[in-house]
Design a protein that fits this description.
By secondary structure, this protein is α+β, with helices and mostly antiparallel strands. About 35% of the residues lie in helices and about 25% in strands. It comes from Comamonas guangdongensis.
Length: about 260
């Protein structure tokens, strides 16, 4: 009995389970590899799109009639400029994690002459200044001096952050959700996008961008993106190939011991 081969000791059920596990692993690894290939194509398109746009001269923000057509592929990271009045009292602070550490984005609506509003990310402020900013927002008075805003168009970030949902009632914002912020602040004609204040160096309007201060740092839009998806894809495909080799070795071993 003790000298029976491994192939003889392995029951039909165990063989079936090994086959099922092997097939599942192979298909899973292949699917993950293909997903990374798709992600790589998306990332390359994003990098090319951003590189092409961020150095262009700013154009006027899209008119309300164009709002239904606005999407990431056609407009995100496009340099734009707008002229209007700050609605400081309708500002909100949204959670941010940047190269400067944790803190908040100061999101303030800009009221345009046609009565529409555009949320503007005026920059990053450290976490320790949250209470001071909330007091300043609460005490803000209506602006009387119009300003010109130059920055990059960004798409709304609905829902919230990872495992964290925006809570308008509590003033807790974990993403720049334009529709939710507009509703909570009473903005009846808000654009479906927001603007990151400031444009990168090399843009013709960079000199006109808002300067950074100790309290607020604009121009922190991430425009450099890592692209390791090919490495990930090859890793997953390599694991799928290892499953095939392992199955072949097991089969060869079973036949040799039979």
């Amino acid at each position: 009995m003790k000298n029976r081969s491994a192939a003889q000791r392995r029951s039909p059920f165990a063989k079936a389970m090994l086959i099922c596990v092997g097939i599942a692993l192979f298909l899973g690894f292949m699917a993950l590899g293909s997903w990374q290939v798709q992600r790589r194509a998306w990332k390359l398109d994003l990098i090319a799109r951003v590189e092409q746009r961020v150095h262009a001269a700013p154009v006027a923000v899209p008119a309300p009639g164009l709002w239904p057509q606005i999407d990431a592929a056609g407009y995100e990271y496009l340099p734009v400029q707008a002229h209007g009045l700050w609605l400081d009292k309708q500002s909100v602070l949204t959670k941010a994690l940047t190269e400067d550490g944790a803190g908040f984005w100061l999101m303030t609506p800009l009221q345009l002459a046609d009565g529409t509003q555009i949320l503007v990310n005026r920059g990053f402020t450290p976490e320790k200044l949250r209470a001071a900013w909330l007091q300043r927002i609460d005490a803000a008075k209506p602006a009387t001096e119009p300003v010109t805003v130059i920055g990059l168009m960004r798409m709304s970030e609905p829902g919230g952050g990872f495992l964290r949902h925006n809570d308008a009632a509590a003033g807790q914002w974990f993403s720049r959700d334009v529709a939710a912020i507009a509703q909570s602040r009473g903005l009846s004609r808000a654009a479906p996008y927001f603007i990151d204040l400031g444009v990168p160096a090399g843009n013709p309007a960079h000199a006109d961008s808002a300067p950074a201060t100790a309290e607020l740092r604009p121009g922190m839009t991430v425009i450099q993106f890592s692209n390791s998806h090919l490495v990930y894809a090859l890793t997953w495909y390599g694991l799928a190939a290892m499953v095939v080799v392992a199955a072949w070795l097991v089969r060869r071993h079973d036949r040799a011991r039979a």
